[in-house]
Amino acid sequence: MPDSPKEEVDETGGPDLISFADMPDRLEAAGLTRISKQRCRQLAEEDPAWPVPLDKALKVGRMRLFDWRVLEPYFRNRTPRQGQRTDLKPPASDS
């Protein structure tokens, strides 16, 4: 209709929604270190710097969906840390 107000259209389109299962491939495609979907889920649950809290993520069925444009800077700026082996530490002495 000619009298309708024109909507502003985001030239980048809508959100680029991905699930935890899609994250490893998307990381690799972006030139970042590939990590497992389980590790992505663990980061979402435990890392305070994760950009979208799980309770705020879009839920479709049993899946959580996240906007890749929000997650990519997180993964790009994240400092990976290796796990620490606890079997190599001497037992703590009771003093």
DSSP summary, beta strand count: 3
Q: Could you give the distance between the termini?
A: 82 Å
Instruction: Report the mean per-residue pLDDT as an integer.
Output: 84
Name the poorly predicted regions.
4-10
Radius of gyration from CA coordinates: 20 Å
**Biggest pleated sheet:** 3 strands, antiparallel
* Helix content percent band: 25-40%
Helix/strand-derived class? alpha+beta
Strand fraction band?
5-15%
Strand order in the sheet with the most strands: 1-3-2
The SSE string, one letter per element, is EHHEEH
What is the number of helical segments per DSSP (H or I, 4+ residues)? 3
User: What is the overall shape?
Assistant: elongated
Describe the overall structure.
The protein has 95 residues and is an alpha+beta fold. It is 28% helix and 11% strand. The chain is built from three helices and three strands, in the order βααββα. It has helices at 23-29, 37-46, 68-77, and strands spanning 17-18, 58-60, 63-67. Strands 1-3-2 form a three-stranded antiparallel beta sheet. The longest helix is centred in the middle third of the chain and has 10 residues, at 37-46. It is elongated. It starts with 16 loop residues before the first strand and ends in an 18-residue tail after the last helix. The model is unreliable at 4-10 (pLDDT under 50).
